[in-house]
Design brief:
CATH topology of the largest domain: Rossmann fold
CATH class of the largest domain: Alpha Beta
CATH superfamily of the largest domain: P-loop containing nucleotide triphosphate hydrolases
Largest sheet: 5 strands, parallel
Radius of gyration: 28 Å
Number of helices: 20
Length: 398
Amino acid sequence: MQQPLAFRMRPKSLEEFVGQQDIVGDSGPLRKFIESGNIPSMIFWGPPGTGKTTLAEIIAITVDADFHRLSAVTEGKDALKKILASAVKNQEISQKKSILFIDEIHRWNKAQQDALLPYVESGVITLIGATTENPSFTVISPLLSRSRVFIFSEHSQQNIQQRLTQAASLLEVSLSDEVKTYLSELANGDMRFALTSFELACNIAETKEITKKDVEAAMQKFLRYDKNGEEHYNIISAVHKSLRSSNASAAVYWIVRMLEAGEDPLYIARRLVRFASEDIGNAQPNALLLANVVFDTCKNLGMPECGVALVQLAEYLAKSPKSNNSYVAYQKAAEDVKKYGNLAVPLHFRNAPTKFMKEIGYGKGYEYDHDLTNKKSEQECFPSEIKGRNYFPPPTTP
């Protein structure tokens, strides 16, 4: 069985590698590490199809290290233990470096990531973790502090067109500049997506001349949901608006559709946390508490186990009473901040830790609400330019 085009075209050296020039270009920091042979543990953060896995393999080849690869989606501690045992033995016998590449490391929970720490710290393994999520939130702090983070950018259309030209030559087909441009635009910076779609177009094309129609037919199923494209935003919008309309079933449909297409559950969980504040707020304060619990559940369990928790949360949010008071208040306050800039804090609200500050009026006239009979002062809390503001609507009477 022939290997996929994207795999066959995977670069084997830095000279063949396309893109990420700020990292591996002539003056790039990672190139200097590679050339010196002194490779630190690293986190590669960037969108899909930007070369994270490929570059990890190139590093292992260049520095002549044993390369071990794990997928955080399908493999856990048992697979890790075998690799670590092999790395320890390898270090004792030959002193050869062992590089452990963990794809989608953000899918591992804290306990799984903790297991790596002593081996990274002692140098038994050099860790290269790949993630599409911000490592500040998805990689534990001790591991992050022992690693260098390199940020990968989406491939430019020029990079993708360059590889498509090489792919057309490899497959012995003709590809016009117009079709190359069209395909590179649809790929949205994802090189693997571009090559896979091009290969499929070649398979269904009736001639050696690949047309725009061939590309459209090949990409039809992909265009229904692209994690970085328009449909991604259309569907998450449908989730939000279904919840706002208190339609639990519709919200669940859109959420499951995203999950089944491979969306990261943490992305959906974050959006539901936002919804709990923006559209429910203090009408049901427990909504925000449950949303945060489900976010942690998704982080700890990953897919597919956390999918049911997201559905549970969606039902709760949809059926909760709604209020956007907090959202509206934020917007009104932001307008005042933008319009008036850095207004001075009223003197009576300022602390006066020194005699001089008291003499010039700091804290003068401040009323300590707890000392009042009704526990509520009438003192002005705003700067004078916007005194008396009320960002919240008056309570409605039943």
